[in-house]
Amino acid sequence: MQSKSNLSLRQLEYFKTISDIGSFRGAAERLGVTQPTLTAQIATLEESLGVKLFERTRSGATPTVAARELMPVCHRIQEEVQSFVDTAHGFTGGVAGTYRIGVTPTLGPYLLPQVLPDIHERFQALRLFVREGVPADLNHDLRSAKHDLILSTQPIAEAGLEISPLFREPLKLVIPLDHRLANKKVINRVDLVGEEVLTLDEHHLYHRQVTELCQTLGATTRRDFEGTSLDTLRQMVVMGMGITFLPSLYVASEIRETDPLRVTDVSGVNMYRDHALAWRTRSPARPLFRRLAQTIRELLPNTGATELRVLY
Questions:
Q1: Sites in the chain below the pLDDT cut of 50
Q2: For a FRET experiment, which of 124, 165, 206, 256 has its CA 20 to 30 Å from that of 173?
Q3: For the HTH lysR-type domain, which residue ranges apply (predicted)?
């Protein structure tokens, strides 16, 4: 049996990739190596550890019980190695590497295009691999290390995570021009009593937020017509199917003065949602992530949504 000192970081990366993908062939393609090379390295790793890591099946490769137990340790080792690299870059003032960031579909597409160019200018060796997901999935994937950090809407479960509040985003009432309230100079809470409001389907946190807002206003959400995206909601309003609430970043990005819509506030009602960056408390890159959070706060005036309120 080989000495444990012969274990390599490359073998751990191979082990993790096969576990993530579920097949030797798919892992080899992602890693850019031949399948025989990958198989030989895993065999060497298994011999060194004295345990079998994968069961070959017709559908792919299934991690053994030992592999499942070893995976969290593998994650910690990789995080510590990244910490080693980050610390070295800290001495030179540099920031480098590729990090996986998860974002919500109701925020990421309307904030990131406004701030990423400046982030890239400030951190030129930094790469952010962006993936969208609903908040529940983002939280799970962050904890399982599929994401390095997430940009999401509060609340975010805090156990094991460091959360950096970013900003408060107002919600806007959006109504079609032929609606009974379209020409009313000031819309009050009582004007919305009994109104049916369009919202996203219940898989989105935004559905719950709008539902709770409607409850405070005496309005109801339409369950027979639910949107799959903010764009869908806007189009449904344009077609006269109802009214809705849309985030101000989306409004600033996607709604034009020529659109047949009225965008307004509800007098005396605070309608908003809070956003934050979050990462694992043990992440070796947490100093970098704190700098990113501060950078985003500084860049908010460039987004075009003038009512955003910075949070600390």
A1: 1-4, 91-93
A2: 165
A3: 7-64
